[in-house]
Give the backbone structure.
Amino acid sequence: MSDKSRRLRVAIDGPAGAGKSTVAREVSKRLKLKYLDTGAMYRAITLKVHREKIDLANLETLKEMLDRTTVQIGNDKKVFLDGEDVTEEIRMSHVNDLVSPVSCISLVRKRLVAMQQAIANESDRIIMEGRDIGSRVMPDAEFKFYLDASLEERARRRNKEQLEKKINLSLDEVAAEIKRRDEIDSGRADSPLTRVEDAVLVDTTAMSFDEVVDSIIRKITEQLH
Ligand code: DC
């Protein structure tokens, strides 16, 4: 049995491009927490749906695929689909375009949430980021944050990241993609993106990366001491 008094589980939710991954990774380093990017798991499953051209309306085929699929996430942010390193490919536009529709399917969510909860149960010190971490995956997390920023700012940051990776999309295209994903992620029936009441809202629009990380760490350490 784990010593519950030593638990430090941090949930970070928010829309696409709010900086959840980079912030969560830095907080995990500074506070020595295990880090889990749950979006990467949805992306890996989506890549397989894309490769096998699975019809999302055909739940039998989808279930059969899920039964023979493994997704593993290393603490070094590498993502493996059936043992293959797909870290780069899951960020590409063929995955971006399909990931929100795939994430709406309860069958997919059930599998991934169970995996995420198993990982959380194994670890007393973890930071997990996604859309439903505070509401569904770790509703009893000690700390919950909701990271947000204006659509323009999120598109600008995502665009910068993509240009560094030599993905050439215009700012308008990036903004449209993010907006479309937000609408699907917030509008779906099964555990939509929402800010739970006990999550601290961090509007990062006018904040630097360091300011966001510091504000989260301050909030956690203040309450721990
Ligand atoms: O965080 P991200 O942009 O890599 O996530 C990709 C998609 O995965 C996102 O648009 C919706 C889905 N997702 C989800 O439904 N639930 C999560 N906990 C994490 C991601």
Summary: Residues 106-122 form the longest helix (17 residues). Residues 16, 38-39, 42-43, 99-100, 103, 130-133, 181, 185 surround 2'-deoxycytidine-5'-monophosphate (CB under 6 Å).
